[in-house]
Amino acid sequence: MIGDSGGGSKVRLIGRRMFILSAAKAVVVFGVVGRLISLQINESKKYKTLSDKNRFREWKFAPPRGVIKDYFGNEIASNKQVYQLHLIPENSENITALLFRLKNILNLSEKDVFKIRRKIKSQKPWDPVIVSDNLTWSEFSRINLFLHELQGVEPIVSVARIYHEQSSSHVIGYVSKISKKDLQKKEYLRDMRAVGMRVGKTGLENKLDSEIIGNVGHKRYEVNAFGKRIKEVSIDQGKIGKSFRTTLDLELQNLSSKLMEGKAGSICVMDIYRGDIVTMVSSPVFDPNKFVHGINIKDWKELINHRDKPLVNKAIAGLYPPGSTIKGLVAISALENDIVNTKMLRRCTGSIDFYGEKFHCWKKKGHGVVDMRKAIKESCDIYFYEVARKLGIDRLSQTARAFGFGKPMVKGFFEERIGVVPNTKWKRDKIGKPWYLGETLHSGIGQGYWQTSPLQLCLMTAHIANGGYEIEPRVIVSEDEEDISSLERFVEEKKSFSDNTGSISDIFKNFKYKTLFKNQENINFVKDAFFGATNEPGGTSYGSRLKEKNFMFAGKTGTSQVRKFTERQRELEIKNEDLPYEQRDHALFVAFAPYYDPKYSISVVVEHGGSGSRSAAPIAKKVLKKLLERHSLRESMHGEGENI
Amino acid sequence: MFKSGSIQSHLSLRDKIFFLDPILVSCIFLIGVISFFAMYSTDGGQFAYHTKSHIVRFFIFFFLFFIVSFVNLSFWYNSAIFIYLGILILLILVKYFGLTSSGSQRWLGLYFINLQPSELMKIGLILFLAKYYHRISSGDVNRLKYMIQPFIALLIPVILVVMQPDLGTSFLIAVGGAVVVWLAGVKMKFFTYLGVLFLFSAPVAISFLKDYQKSRILTFLDPSRDPLGAGYQITQSKIAIGSGGLFGKGFLNGSQSYLDYLPEKHTDFIFTLFSEEFGFFGSIFILLIYVLITWRIVNVGHTVRSSFGKLYCYSFATAFFVYVAVNMGMVLGLIPIVGAPLPIMSYGGSSMMAIMFGLGIVMSCKIHKDQALG
Fold first, then answer.
1. Do B374 and A44 touch (CB under 8 A)?
2. Are the beta carbons of B219 and B236 closer than 8 angstroms?
3. pTM of the prediction?
């Protein structure tokens, strides 16, 4: 073991082995450089995205919904500022202590705290939980006072839906929290799951949801590794939803609703040329505001268990046999098919025997000898048994379908029910039994299997009133205003042509309206008969007539039976008022006004209201009066476009 | 013994300064200055604790580097065994009096510094083995009798450090030692035998591993196994480096680090921070300086005439390179996270002290290249 032993050979060995090591180092250097190239050049984009994903976190918030207005620009559904308190669990060091503090400050109940805890557990720690979505101003300012010691909570000024009145609660509908079902049905909601988001559940709120809901806004924060927000990077206020102008007249809505107070039923008013639904009221009404922040169990049970079913929009989802209001249509069908003519006479003695069954007229004493006009005017059942018998159910149902029965009236209202237009095929398919002739007779006076909605009755009346041209009901004012008003112009032009014996076919070329008649005289005959029913002594709605010429209207009453009279009850002459509420007849009335220049049609249904002439026609009279008073105002708003 | 190596002892201080390697010295200084900026960034753009203490340490140990350089090589040759034994005693003391931090007992609490003897052992072992093989002839190198002493000298510190537990440092100590042995001429087959032995003992060794160490290895094999747990560090480091792109996010703009996504950013992951802020070109620049330092050390090895000097310089150059490679490989996700600092750049007094001391001896080899030893 002496000194630097080995000399040259040892140094050479060391040098040689060092060379190998240097080569190995070069390989390693290339490895590191290669890795840097792959990470920082080739995959840089991916890692930049990942880095941003780390850095930024978004908080979505719900945009204000579009405003729903009536025809004159009055707001029916709009938004108001609300104060909310959100809690982000991961930003709080001690949730239990925080909830205890909040409980004291806001007077929360044990149950509220329990609900918040459950919500916290069910979601990610950085997702906000709503502690309260509608704080009063004093609660809100108290929270702000203590904010420094409430780490993890965030007071937020937000907007929520507000409904200004209740008469339109059915047609407008309401919004509420998003449910699982909503997410399945409405695909656009999947990217919109912001805290406090509300979704339309019924009515127009549901129908227009995808447009009225707006675009979700978001705040983007830079957060550190512990989820703490460092700074706000960007904010997108979202986009307020599209606003809509409806065809409704809020003043008439309110009047109609008031007239129906304490009653169950509905009132529909329609512009007979444009199809604009001026009024669509269902009674009783409910307060849609209760649903916005989640309805409480007690209120919900009250609504659900109410005898008159306040949540049902009876104008489109209430189904009733049309009763005598159908007689005009039966007459048109028989005349159009050349089965009978208006001169046919029958003697009404109060009842008649057909095929071994006894059929009654509503007037026990009978009407005596009647022709068709008188049969409509005084609503003789015996006459229409005969007409129906000759006409046959299948021809009648064809005409009924053409005039709008058995079809949906307004698109996008899931709650709408289309009803039943009975015929032989329908009975075979749905009930599995053959059609009996006796059933044709009942159908001829609007009883039996008939199921019609008040809006369908209103549309039928409009079709008659406008001279037999097919229109489409609508609730929302659209951009193609020009198209819609053309029917009115068409009718005007046609009138002047018929005076001058010019060629009508020229006008037809310019207008694409489908006619529902072969001979317009038949339609005009029924209009005249309706006039008689309201304005001539003996007419069923004579008591409700308006005498001023510009206000004169023409209408047809109807009484639809809820149950079949037994012979014994007939003998006893049981009064409707003496029956239990559920067994009383529905009162119906359809009309159009003004008679000398028709503009509007109306249908009134009062559930279990007794006879149409006594309870439905007087209501229609009051609505029509107001309607005609407001006509010039309404006319001035035509062509204002979809937003005002 | 001192007398025999006095051929060059008449060198004046001016001569010694003249013989310093200017490239190596400037590279060390450059890395130091870069590390100040990196540390400033880890402090969130403030001249705060880590930055201040890192700068102070750098200058203290940079001064130490010069002192060590100017001391005659024969002094370091002669005291190699004492240095080794001294560090070994410190390592044993750690076992009994050491400070524990995050589950590992590594530090000796002195009044002015928390000393980590395992870092010093990286140099101590190389020094000891270089002297050992300087003294035996190349013919004896492969005799079993002459393998016992180096084997024991390597094994004891490695075992002590593994037990702390500190897998990374013990691995780096072992690599440094093994490089000396190999350069001295020990045949490949002995390494092969040792390798086979290690493979068979591995399952036993794994059973001694702490859970977090096992999970680190498993996580390395599949980082997506637990992206928010043990794989978190690798994932976040790769995101930081990758998102740096070609030119980086700019000084003080490394979002990954200042938002605390990056773990251990002062120490093991300082390169990640630098790479995020200065991008591909910055990273290559740093790598280049380290390669340059390694190359200059090897160059000193070529110049120095004694076997001790050659063995020491070559081994230290290799060990130094391995430190850099292991750290970069680790933060780049090429090898498991083992806990190895980046020389000079990383925050940590003991590591800095060991590296500067090691570099000082290299420089002493350069200045005293013709010194005859032993």
1. no
2. no
3. 0.67
What is the residue type of B225? R
Q: Distance from CA of residue B301 to its chain's centroid? A: 18
What separation in angstroms does the CA of B67 have from each of B29, B63, B73? 16, 6, 12
Please name the residue of chain A whose CA is at the shortest distance from the CA of residue B334: A35
Give the bridge partners for A198, in sequence order.
A177
Residue B161 · residue B169 · CB < 8 Å: yes
Q: Looking at A25-39, A598-612, B261-275, B297-311, which range is the least confident one?
A: B261-275
Most A CBs within 10 Å, among B126, B145, B239, B300, to test the A interface: B239
Strand partners, A556: A590
Token output for A74: 């009055």
Burial of B142 (0-12, 13-18, 19+ CB in 10 A): middle
Instruction: List CB contacts (< 8 A) between B145 and chain A.
Output: none
Helix, strand, or coil (residue A406): coil
Contact across the interface for B283 and A36, Cβ inside 8 Å: yes
Helices (H), A337-423: 372-377, 381-391, 393-402
Domain boundaries, chain A: 57-245, 250-637
Query: What is the residue-wise DSSP string for A287-308?
Result: -THHHHT---HHHHHHHHH-TT
Query: Would you state the pLDDT for residue A87?
Result: 86
The 10s digit of each residue's pLDDT in B57-102 is 999 999 999 999 999 999 999 999 999 999 999 999 998 888 887 6
Strands (E), A14-73: 56-61, 68-69
Can you give the pLDDT at residue A412? 86
Point out which residues pair with A234 in neighbouring strands.
A220
Q: Shortest Cα distance from A56 to chain B (angstroms)? A: 10
Among B254, B242, B279, smallest CA distance to A222 is for B254
Which residues from chain A sit within 8 angstroms of residue B260, using beta carbons? Answer: 224-226
With an 8 Å Cβ cutoff, are B135 and A2 in contact? yes
| Partners of A155 in the β-ladder | A85
Say what the pLDDT of residue B58 is.
96
Cα(B298)–Cα(B225) distance, rounded to whole angstroms? 41
Q: Would you say the CATH fold of A250-637 matches that of A57-245? A: no
The answer to whether residues B275 and B240 touch, using CB atoms and an 8 Å cutoff, is yes
Query: Least CB-CB distance to B135: which of A1, A31, A39?
Result: A1
- Give the CA-trace dihedral at B242, B245, B248, B252, to 10 degrees: -30
**H-state helical runs in A473-616:** 481-500, 504-510, 520-535, 567-572
Q: Which residues pair with B279 in a beta bridge?
A: none
Q: Which CATH superfamily is domain A57-245 in?
A: Penicillin-binding protein 2a (Domain 2) (3.90.1310.10)
d(CA A328, CA A372): 10
CATH 3.40.710.10 fits A250-637, yes or no: yes
Give the nearest chain B residue to A24 (CA atoms): B318
ipTM: 0.90
Q: How many CA atoms lie within 13 A of A560 on its CB side?
A: 28
Q: What is the pLDDT of residues A259-317, one digit of tens each?
A: 999 999 999 999 998 889 999 999 999 999 999 888 888 999 999 999 999 999 999 99
